[in-house]
Design goal:
The structure holds two protein chains of two kinds. By secondary structure, chain A is an alpha+beta fold. Chain A is about 40% helix and about 20% strand. Chain A contains 15 helices and 16 strands. In chain A, helix 3 links the parallel strand 12 and strand 13 (about 255-260). The mean pLDDT of chain A is about 90. Chain B folds into two domains: about 5-255, Amidase signature (AS) domain (Amidase signature (AS) enzymes, Alpha-Beta Complex); about 265-310 and about 380-485, Alpha-Beta Complex (Amidase signature (AS) enzymes). In chain B, about 40% of the residues lie in helices and about 15% in strands. Chain B has helices at about 5-15, 20-35, 45-60, 65-70, 105-115, 155-165, 180-185, 220-230, 250-255, 275-290, 310-325, 345-355, 360-370, 375-395, 425, 435-440, 470-485, and strands spanning about 40-45, 75-80, 120-125, 170-175, 190-195, 215-220, 265, 295-300, 405, 445-450, 455-460. In chain B, strand 10 (about 445-450) and strand 11 form a beta hairpin. Classes of the chains: A alpha+beta, B alpha/beta. The interface of A and B includes residues 52, 58, 149, 283 and 286 of A.
Chain lengths: ~500, ~475
């Protein structure tokens, strides 16, 4: 967006930690046996602590600390040797204690950074100001004339990851979110289920004239839980604020919501209506003291992270940085890719082709069906079979793409699709030569022009020949043969 | 039939078949029902009689040995209504919780019951433990055990009167700024506030989390040691409960304690203006007796004591404003029953929170103000800094003394209504007990005399953190060799 305005975006991401029990109680933190949150009976996963029965006390779940440290280390944060839990007060029926236990002035992680890759091939470093541990609230269910409260979610552990105001477009914001998402899912500290709100984002957006150093007044867009909505919400908000400024108005500091149906943000409350949270250190929880050895042992246990995997893919298969990023940002997708290459060697060319098949054809099919890789109708094993056909030149890349689409829509196995649709690449000179000869004979004018220097016409001959073979000619071989013949 | 019998004596009687726990329990229920003191808010007769019956069976089977495993076997106790008991209405002296039945039992109570104690019922108290006269209970004041026109002290007023009037063998109180020690001194019993973190707070309905401690209120020091022994020690349900090893509180009482060379610090700041003359005289006389037994009296200074009351009311009210936020009527407690009464959350809260009494409201307002952004640094944060200075004062003092001694309250038990018109006057009753609370130190109130109207006077001993052994030994010696000898 080349306008006279520039957007400034900072993100606060709530990452739900995938611990078995809650952050301050022993109640289950997530549904049992792979059920979804919606299938769980209301108020089933609660203990007297979660319902804030008088006399109960919070006791910190050690696993939560470990997960928060992992997230901090993976984003280059410093882990504070001493951090403190504070109480954040406000009244709302889904907040049983009348305060949320969070970390305020002394968070567990600080001063990290994250590298993001953009479509134009550039990279950018986004700072992470802090990561702190906090508990989730419950959920109000509004009925006609009354409301109900479900406290299953109350006390579920979250980390809040706060970025610097370093992003300048929705593309950068989404790249940051995807990168962070990749890290927490690789670490296994988050289940990454976006529909269930495992990864929710608040976006602080402001605009300023290019060249101006001072930030404009920001609006905070609350609780957006899909990458696409974040993009839409930010884009809408940037345009809205530019409009306000252009028409001589001033942007007011406020909290806004995002209406995904309308694709618009709307005002929820202004700064004047903002709560005074009356933070103070929670006297029920001693400061969290971490020893160096403990932090280092967690550092030693970190798995391969997306960036390392991306670099490995680049060096093994010569992928572009962008493609490698796309393949590694989703842990499952990266595993799918590796599985589809399994047992067919480390051919750079093949690795690249398979990466292309996945990031183009398969990605399009998944996207159209609104599925992630786990919902793919074409298995990694099938991609591997297709890769084998590619590697021995028996199908072309364009055939490979078609096979994937047919497998997706019609099902079946690779060999029967190949057979049924006759996907057999013509890779022998003896059958291609007569076809080329015929085309050269029928297009004398073009032959003369080519020979006179109009080399672009090579495309015409190759195209005609490909058409004549029903698209089955081996494109590389065809090109070489046509060139040879035209030379005369 | 059992006035002032110690736990040891009662258990001897159980063995000798002079008395059964069931008889004793039934007798207590009879006395409680006949009593006009308003000490009890609820009785758990079924639970208690079942516990007593079990105790009698075990004693009949195992004799003397049964007390090794269960040192409080068959002993009827009263529990301050700030402590939760599974299935027993727990009101905290508040209308807010008049119908609240907790689904769990406080760790301290579980430990007492596991040790064989019989829980008679729940004891009256100032609402949410805020007060020093027990006049702030939503269920009416508690009457002094011997002087019906006097308050028993607070906030553990029911706990004090129930022991003083022998409506139980011993009771549990809680102490935030003096709520065990002051009523103990008013009613002439022993009241022990252990070191902060010595006893789990799980199940103690919080007033001020960084100050609240559970402690025994008993007829003698020996009984206090027995209760402390059972209740102390780490609890995985309370992160502030100390992992420090539990002392041999009871065993140490059998050792001969010599006052010879024991250095007792007398803080010059603790003989305050407006102190009742007889109180000062009685405490000074007691100290002289100890000196004659070989103790060395050392004048000390705790220079930040003058800020104690202000500091305490900022810290405790701030924490209270937060702790009491959960009483919103959404999950339990009294609440509007229809959308007509409360069409939106704000009107709902307004109605619900009107159920707090005036003292509780006053402190919630004070605490809310002290924590507000813009005031936090000047009030809450500053108070925490002063609190640290006061703790340093004590650390410094304990480098040169073994114990600190003072009066417990500036006066003996006052008359109903005497202080209720002026909250500040009432707050000053805690001036001698608050500093140890802020520093987290153990303190004990032991009877040391009476005034002209025969109202009891108490002496307070303080010891360094987790030195309950020393504190109890000294108090036990004072009780047996000084007080009972007078």
């Amino acid at each position: 967006m080349q306008s006279e305005f520039e957007a400034v975006i900072g993100l606060e991401v709530h990452v739900q930690l995938a611990t078995e029990s809650k952050v301050f109680s022993r109640a289950r933190s997530r549904p049992e046996g792979g059920r979804s949150v919606g299938e769980e009976l209301v108020n089933m996963n609660t203990s007297p602590v979660d319902t804030a029965q008088p006399g109960t006390l919070p006791v910190l779940n050690k696993k939560v600390v470990e997960f928060a440290i992992k997230a901090g280390l993976a984003t280059g944060c410093e882990i504070r040797p001493k951090s403190v839990f504070s109480r954040k007060h406000y009244f709302y029926p889904d907040l049983p204690k009348g305060y949320q236990i969070s970390q305020y002035d002394l968070p567990i992680c600080e001063h990290g950074k994250l590298e993001i890759e953009l479509k134009n091939g550039e990279s950018k470093t986004i700072t992470i100001q802090r990561i702190h541990i906090e508990e989730d609230a419950g959920k109000n269910l509004h009925m006609s004339g009354y409301s109900l409260v479900n406290l299953n979610r109350a006390g579920v552990p979250l980390i809040e990851v706060v970025s610097g105001p370093d992003m300048r477009s929705s593309e950068e914001a989404v790249a940051y979110l995807k990168s962070l998402y990749a890290i927490v899912t690789y670490l296994g500290v988050c289940d990454g289920n976006l529909q269930e709100g495992n990864f929710r984002c608040d976006a602080n957006v402001s605009v300023r004239k290019r060249g101006v150093e001072k930030f404009g007044t920001r609006a905070e867009i609350k609780n957006v839980n899909s990458f696409r909505f974040v993009e839409k919400a930010i884009d809408y908000e940037i345009l809205r604020q530019i409009e306000v400024v252009k028409s001589g108005g001033t942007v007011i500091q406020e909290t806004r919501g995002f209406d995904s149906a309308k694709g618009q943000t709307f005002s929820m409350r202004s700064k004047e209506e903002a709560h005074d949270y009356r933070y103070f250190p929670d006297p029920d929880l001693p400061p969290l003291i971490l020893k160096k050895a403990q932090i280092e042992s967690i550092r030693g246990s970190l798995p391969e992270l997306p960036q390392a995997k991306r670099d490995r893919f680049i060096s093994l298969y010569d992928l572009s940085k962008y493609d490698a990023t796309v393949l590694t940002q989703d842990k499952k997708l990266s595993e799918y890719y590796e599985e589809s290459l399994g047992g067919i060697g480390n051919s750079k060319e093949l690795g690249k082709k398979v990466a292309n098949l996945i990031t183009s054809e398969l990605a399009r099919l998944l996207n159209d069906a609104d599925l992630d890789i786990t919902g793919s109708k074409v298995s990694a094993k099938q991609i591997r079979e297709i890769a084998k056909l590619l590697s021995d030149d028996s199908v072309s890349f364009s055939m490979a793409k078609q096979i994937i689409t047919i497998l997706w829509t019609e099902g079946g196995d690779v060999s029967s699709v190949v057979e049924k649709h006759g996907f057999k690449q013509m890779s022998d000179t003896s059958s291609l030569e007569p076809i080329i000869d015929k085309i050269i004979a029928e297009n004398e004018k073009n032959v003369q022009d080519y020979r006179a220097g109009k080399e672009k016409l090579i495309g015409f001959f190759v195209g005609q020949a490909m058409k004549a073979t029903g698209g089955k000619a081996n494109p590389g071989m065809l090109q070489d043969l046509v060139k040879k013949k035209l030379k005369g | 039939m059992n006035q002032n019998h110690s736990i040891a004596k009662l258990q001897k009687d159980f063995i000798a078949k002079k008395l059964s726990s069931t008889e004793l329990t039934k007798d207590y229920f009879k006395k409680i029902k006949a009593s006009k003191t308003n000490a009890y808010l609820a009785l758990c007769e079924e639970r208690a009689l079942k516990q007593a019956k079990t105790a009698d069976e075990i004693i009949a089977r195992d004799g003397e040995r049964s007390f090794e495993k269960q040192p409080l076997l068959g002993i009827p106790l009263g529990i301050k209504d700030v402590l939760t008991m599974d299935g027993v209405v727990t009101t905290c002296g508040s209308k807010m919780l008049e119908n609240y039945v907790p689904p769990f039992t406080a760790t301290a109570v579980i430990r007492l019951e596991n040790a064989g104690a019989v829980s008679l019922g729940k004891l009256n108290m100032d609402e949410f433990a805020m007060g020093s006269s027990n006049e702030n209970s939503a269920f009416g004041p508690v009457i002094h055990p011997t002087h019906p026109d006097r308050v028993p002290g607070g906030s553990s007023g029911g706990s004090a009167t129930s022991v003083g009037a022998d409506l139980c063998v011993a009771s549990l109180g809680t102490d935030t700024g003096g709520s065990i020690r002051l009523p103990a001194s008013f009613t002439g019993i022993v009241g022990l506030k252990p070191t902060y973190g010595r006893i789990s707070r799980y199940g103690l309905i919080a007033f001020a989390s960084s100050l609240d401690q559970i402690g025994p209120m008993t007829k003698n020091v020996d009984d206090a040691a027995r209760l402390l022994q059972v209740m102390s020690g780490a609890d995985e349900m309370d992160a502030t409960c100390a992992p420090n090893s539990v002392g041999n509180y009871l065993g140490k009482l059998k050792d001969k304690w010599s006052w010879s060379g024991v250095r007792i610090g007398i803080p010059k700041e603790y003989f305050v203006d407006g102190m009742q003359m007889e109180v000062e005289a009685s405490v000074r006389e007691s100290l002289k007796k100890l000196e004659s037994l070989g103790a060395k009296l050392v004048d000390i200074s705790l220079p930040h004591s003058k800020y104690a009351v202000a500091t305490y009311y900022l810290v405790s009210a701030s924490e209270a404003s937060s702790n009491l936020a959960r009483f919103d009527g959404v999950r339990y407690g009294v609440r509007p029953q229809s959308a007509v009464e409360a069409p939106d959350p704000m009107s709902f809260y307004k109605r619900v929170r009107a159920n707090f009494g005036p003292e509780v409201k006053r402190r919630i307002l004070l605490g809310t103000f002290a924590l507000a952004s813009g005031y936090y640094d000047a009030y809450y944060k500053r108070a925490c800094q002063v609190r640290r200075l006061m703790k340093n004062d004590f650390d410094e003092a304990f480098k040169s003394v073994d114990l600190i001694a003072s009066a417990v309250g500036p006066t003996t038990a006052f008359k109903f209504g005497e202080k209720s018109s002026n909250p500040l006057q009432a707050y000053l009753m805690d001036i001698l007990t608050i500093p140890a609370s802020l520093a987290g130190l153990p303190g004990i109130s032991v009877p040391c005399g009476v005034d002209a109207e025969k109202l009891p006077i108490g002496i307070q001993f303080l010891a360094p953190h987790f030195e309950e052994e020393r504190l109890l030994q000294a108090a036990h010696s004072f009780e047996t060799e000084v007080y009972h000898a007078i």
